[in-house]
UniProtKB/TrEMBL annotation:
Gene3D superfamilies: 3.40.50.1360. The keyword Methyltransferase does not apply. The keyword Transcription does not apply. Its EC number is 3.1.1.31. Residues 18-249 form the Glucosamine/galactosamine-6-phosphate isomerase domain. Pathway: Carbohydrate degradation; pentose phosphate pathway; D-ribulose 5-phosphate from D-glucose 6-phosphate (oxidative stage): step 2/3. This is Probable 6-phosphogluconolactonase. Keywords: Hydrolase. It catalyses: 6-phospho-D-glucono-1,5-lactone + H2O = 6-phospho-D-gluconate + H(+).
Length: 266
């Protein structure tokens, strides 16, 4: 259970005593969204990130979720991926496969990983093509506002520098308005070549969750959630503002240690 929870202006903040409690609530949240999406349109289109998120999702591999979640209805994507081989230690696909997907009965053909045998530019282009096909065949809904895909859930982590997916501070791709998936070759965090969902896609999702743990992220959590101005360079996580969808921040006590919380009080 959360130590603190508050909702304001379409955003929800949940703060947990420790990562164990956060993980339990995160598993409940994902399982509930999965059930609701399957009921509503027959599938659950979920985009994962890499990093600490996957181990925080670990409870989904355990009872009761391993049995109660309708895994066959999951269509799995990545909000960002490093352009490395799928068996490379830096691959977000490998992280999710080892930590989650190999432990639950997902359908292999529903797992949409990137083409890692081409350049970052081509990998982004190919990935957007795959997503367009699934929008056309109505596996993924489409936003009536932006014409972007409307994922049922996009799960993001946040780096200490405020990056989300592979959208880093001061990068031009933050301004991308047309592409759904773009690429970078100069990631400040290795490896340098990555593909990433753009902000219009992230902000078109029905649900976005940002999952953040650890004291090294406390400054960025404060700048983003307390909406400190000026915040230079502007932190990508602050630009995560779903147009119609819900935004939930799952934060542990150490990452929340510098929050003043004024933006969530009346
Ligand atoms: O490089 C990346 O970093 C972020 C944050 O990772 P974390 O380990 O600090 O949680 C991650 O969300 C992103 O997917 C990944 O490519």
């Amino acid at each position: 259970m959360a130590l603190f929870g508050a909702k304001k202006d379409g955003r929800e903040l949940k703060i947990y005593e420790n990562t164990d409690e956060l993980s339990t609530d995160l598993a409940d949240y994902i399982a509930e969204l999965s059930e609701a999406s399957v009921k509503e349109h027959g599938v659950f289109a979920i985009a994962l990130s890499g990093g600490s998120l996957i181990s925080l999702m670990g409870k989904l591999c355990e009872a009761p979720y391993n049995k109660t979640v309708d895994w066959a209805k999951w269509y799995i994507f990545w909000a960002d991926e490093r352009v490395v081989a799928k068996n490379h230690a830096d691959s977000n696909y490998k992280l999710a496969k080892d930590g989650l997907l190999s432990k639950v009965p997902v359908v292999p053909s529903h797992v949409h990983s990137i083409n890692d045998t081409v350049s970052a530019e081509k990998a982004a282009e190919d990935y957007e093509f795959v997503i367009r096909q699934l929008v056309r065949t109505r596996v993924i809904n489409v936003s009536d506002i932006s014409d972007c895909p409307k994922f049922d859930l996009i799960l993001l982590g946040m780096g200490p520098d405020g990056h989300v997916a592979s959208l880093f501070p001061s990068h031009l791709v933050l301004d991308e308005k047309e592409e759904w998936v773009t690429f970078i070759t100069d990631s400040p965090k290795p490896p340098p070549e990555r593909i990433t969902f753009t902000l219009p896609v992230i902000n078109s999702a029905s649900n976005v969750a940002v999952v953040v743990t650890g004291g090294n992220k406390a400054d960025s959590v404060h700048l983003v959630i307390d909406d400190v101005e000026p915040d230079l360079p502007s932190l990508p996580a602050k630009l995560v503002q779903p147009t119609k969808g819900n935004l939930v921040w799952f934060v542990d006590k150490t990452a929340a240690s510098k929050l003043d919380g004024t933006k969530f009080s009346e």
